[in-house]
Amino acid sequence: MQDIRIELTQNPTHLPEDESTLGFGKRFSDHMFVMDYTVEKGWFDPRIVPYAPISLYPSTMCFHYGQTTFEGLKAYRTEKNEILLFRPQQNFKRLNISDDRLCIPKLDEEFCLEALKKLIQIDEKFVPHSKGTSLYIRPFIIATEPQLGANSSTQYKFIIITSPSGVYYSSGLNPVKIYVEDNYVRAVRGGMGMAKTGGNYAVSLKSQVNAHNNDYSQVLWLDGVERKYIEEVGAMNIFFVIGDEVVTPEINGSILDGITRKSMVELLKKEGKKVSERRISIQEVEDAYENGELKEVFGTGTAAVISPVGVLKYKDKVMTINDNKIGEISKHLYDTLTGIQRGEIEDKFGWTVKVY
Ligand SMILES: *Cc1c(COP(=O)(O)O)cnc(C)c1O
């Protein structure tokens, strides 16, 4: 494994006294991990350096052609003052899957995890202490060759930045209002919907803005061809409790293979619940709603863990779910997963990785 060069900051900063002011993704720890790639050298010069602007030519390819990928995960401080990561190997594995789709060279997953642990050890004081807070971790790759030919870049930068983040739900787990998009689409099979890449977010903004203007907080995407089958929320995967079955759309090539989603499915299976990864149409959801079988709807993702859906709007129909309150299964899954992540519930799955 390559040695990581370390250059510490001359201007150390600190977390605010009042951690409730942190918000999400607004401030950053003192250091970042950086590594470069060229065709001749492969990935080289891994280093931990002060968090600072990076200098790039205006011709740098990532500004023009969107050849970028990213990941998102969290580190949690436990009551025993340990620091835990949640399934970080899965994030680096998925980064390589996204990279493959976007012609970005593969990373050594084990080395990435070692680099991340080292970075967190150096910036340990930025992992907040209060309940519900965490250190959000953003690994990403950008194409850095300074030229305008529309090819795959021959140079890249891999960077990990970290951001101390406050309680995601400052007012508790309140259900969100979601709007089913029947005009625009996010991804099609064979496209890059299965990759974590900036373009999937850019393509979502217009619907997101429309949703906000109509007092909805997010958009639920339907499949890109027939606009019949449910895909995901765009930064979250989606689950429906219909009767005694928990259903989430199957991994089909156009949705992201979420690690929270995967963990929920594994948890539910272990508890002997009926859980299906299958195709589900918006019509089936409407029918279940009409029959009184639609018990709960919730989104899953690293940032919120679980986001209960209280209102789902499709065309002219507004469906209020579980009286606009968090459901029993959603609450149970939230408590269990966050309990494991924070080292409060025994981790029978071997999901957590100790930084120290
Ligand atoms: C990151 C992301 C998710 C959630 O994945 P997790 O691994 O659970 O955080 C879902 N959908 C999209 C499009 C995403 O980018």
UniProtKB/TrEMBL annotation:
GO annotation terms (biological process): isoleucine biosynthetic process; L-leucine biosynthetic process; L-valine biosynthetic process
PROSITE patterns: AA_TRANSFER_CLASS_4
Gene3D superfamilies: 3.30.470.10, D-amino Acid Aminotransferase, subunit A, domain 2
Keyword Amino-acid biosynthesis found: yes
Pfam families reported for this sequence: Aminotran_4
E.C. code: 2.6.1.42
Domain of life: Bacteria
InterPro entries: Aminotrans_IV, Aminotrans_IV_CS, Aminotransferase-like, B_amino_transII, BCAT-like_C, BCAT-like_N, BCAT_family
Pathway the protein acts in: Amino-acid biosynthesis; L-isoleucine biosynthesis; L-isoleucine from 2-oxobutanoate: step 4/4; Amino-acid biosynthesis; L-valine biosynthesis; L-valine from pyruvate: step 4/4; Amino-acid biosynthesis; L-leucine biosynthesis; L-leucine from 3-methyl-2-oxobutanoate: step 4/4
GO MF annotation list: L-isoleucine-2-oxoglutarate transaminase activity; L-leucine-2-oxoglutarate transaminase activity; L-valine-2-oxoglutarate transaminase activity
Record PTM N6-(pyridoxal phosphate)lysine, positions in chain: K196
UniProt keywords, alphabetically: Amino-acid biosynthesis, Aminotransferase, Branched-chain amino acid biosynthesis, Pyridoxal phosphate, Transferase
Reactions performed catalytically: L-leucine + 2-oxoglutarate = 4-methyl-2-oxopentanoate + L-glutamate; L-valine + 2-oxoglutarate = 3-methyl-2-oxobutanoate + L-glutamate; L-isoleucine + 2-oxoglutarate = (S)-3-methyl-2-oxopentanoate + L-glutamate
Cofactor: pyridoxal 5'-phosphate
Family matches, as PANTHER family: BRANCHED-CHAIN-AMINO-ACID AMINOTRANSFERASE, SUBGROUP IIII AMINOTRANSFERASE
NCBIfam families xrefs: ilvE_II, PRK13357.1
Family: Belongs to the class-IV pyridoxal-phosphate-dependent aminotransferase family.
Annotated protein name in UniProt: Branched-chain-amino-acid aminotransferase
